Amino acid sequence: QLPYSEYENVKDTDSDLIIVGFSQLGSESDWRTANTKSIQRALSKENGFSLIYSNGRQKQENQIKDVRSFIFQEVDYIVIAPETETGWDTVLEEAKEAGIPVIIVDRMIDTADDTLYAAYVGTDKYEEGKKAGLWLEKYLKEQESKDKSSLKKKTYNIAVLEGTLNSTAQIGRSKGFEEIAKTHKEWKILAQESGEFTKAKGKEVMAKYLQEFDDIDILLSQNDDMTFGAIEAIQEDSLTCGVDGKIKIISFDGVSEAFDRMEEGLINVDIECNPLQGQLIANIIERLEKGEVVNKFSYMDEKVFEAENAAAERIGRSY
Ligand code: GZL
User: Fold this and answer.
1) Whether the Cβ atoms of residue 76 and residue 102 lie closer than 8 Å to each other
2) Which atom of ligand 1 is closest in space to residue 106's alpha carbon?
3) Per 3-state DSSP, what percentage of the chain is helix, strand, and coil (rounded to 5)?
4) Ligand 1 pocket check for 131: Cβ under 6 Å
5) How many angstroms from the chain centroid is the CA of residue 7?
6) Phi and psi at residue 189, to the nearest 5°
7) Rounded CA gap, 137 and 134, in Å?
8) pLDDT, tens digit, 9 for 90 and up, residues 42-80
9) Which SS3 state, helix, strand or coil, does residue 298 take?
């Protein structure tokens, strides 16, 4: 008897619905909430699906248990947003054995056998990291051209709040930013530690940075929730951040509360990571159901939002 993990709804017996088991990695951030809602809305009964949702609570072992339960229930498709990249081959081989197509969403898995998944739907975190580096290049050039004094800084001290280690978001954003940073000897990365994509941990690590370093110029925070915590730590330390503040902040995701902070001038720029992947996932499943060939990789459109344009840019956004 395979272990069951708790389910929000039981497998539906209505046979003409497409039954999908969805292993979501957790509920750690506003971004994750928007991602879950998008997938639940798209894979709904009125759209012809019966969705079995499970929350892995940030632990891969929970997700693997959930995927095994989906296999046991003989679902038609399995959708996985993997907490971290490695360690998926065994359970995906079991799904393949059972003839159940798997769709990887949001973060990616690290596997030598790409027949273990039918498609990937998500975002390009490496590009997001590069966009952050390119924005910082542009920003510093603008500042230097304004500041004619010879006192302009020779070194820019950068503190980094990393996301969950070994997650695609952390790997890609770090790699993309470093690709640009390594071409600037005047950029100095003071520290990089994981804030685990949560507000609480982000605040804790930022408070530690503020104790350790007395001259942080830039914070690169790999998601908005850690940024919200970091802003609290900065303000509790009677320091300033953002457009007119001492510590310039580059954040990732672009959730609603981040637009509030950009309108207040507390975040300089937010690199969008688009969570609204539900419709694309539903389309791919419907095409697989008809035996059509689908793209192996599908990427969401993403923008870069600067504080100065935040009020206009947020019009019409749903999260
Ligand atoms: C990015 C996604 C990340 C978000 C975080 O694709 O995996 O996980 O940036 C979330 O907010 O926790």
Assistant:
1) no
2) 6
3) 40, 20, 40
4) no
5) 24
6) -80, 110
7) 5
8) 999 999 999 999 999 999 999 999 999 999 999 999 999
9) strand
Q: Looking at per-residue confidence, does 189 or 11 come out higher?
A: 189
ipTM of the assembly?
A: 0.98
Q: Which residue in 188, 272, 192, 197 sits closest to 227, CA to CA?
A: 197
The residue contributing the CA closest to ligand 1 atom 1 is: 169
User: What's the pLDDT score for residue 153?
Assistant: 72
Burial class (CB in 10 A: 0-12, 13-18, 19+), 284: buried
Q: Is the CB of 253 under 6 A from ligand 1?
A: yes
Which of 27, 28, 32, 60 best tests ligand 1's pocket when mutated (most atoms within 8 Å of CB)? Answer: 32
Residues with Cβ within 8 Å of 53's Cβ and at least 6 positions away in sequence, in order, are 7, 8, 9, 22, 24, 36, 40
Looking at every residue in the chain, the average pLDDT score rounds to 95
- The pTM (predicted TM-score) of the whole model is 0.93
First to last CA, the chain: 41
Provide the token pair at 10.
């039981």
From the CB of 169, is ligand 1 less than 6 Å away?
yes
Which tokens hold the place of 38?
Answer: 């998008």
Distance between CA 296 and CA 177 in Å, rounded?
26
Percentage with pLDDT > 90 across the chain: 92
Distance 284 CA to ligand 1 centre (A): 22
Tokens, residue 274: 């688009």
Locate the ligand 1 atom nearest the alpha carbon of residue 26 and give its number.
Answer: 12
Angle in degrees, CA 303, 202, 154, rounded to 5: 70
Which residue type does 28 have?
E
HSE, CB side, 13 Å, CA atoms: give it for residue 123.
27
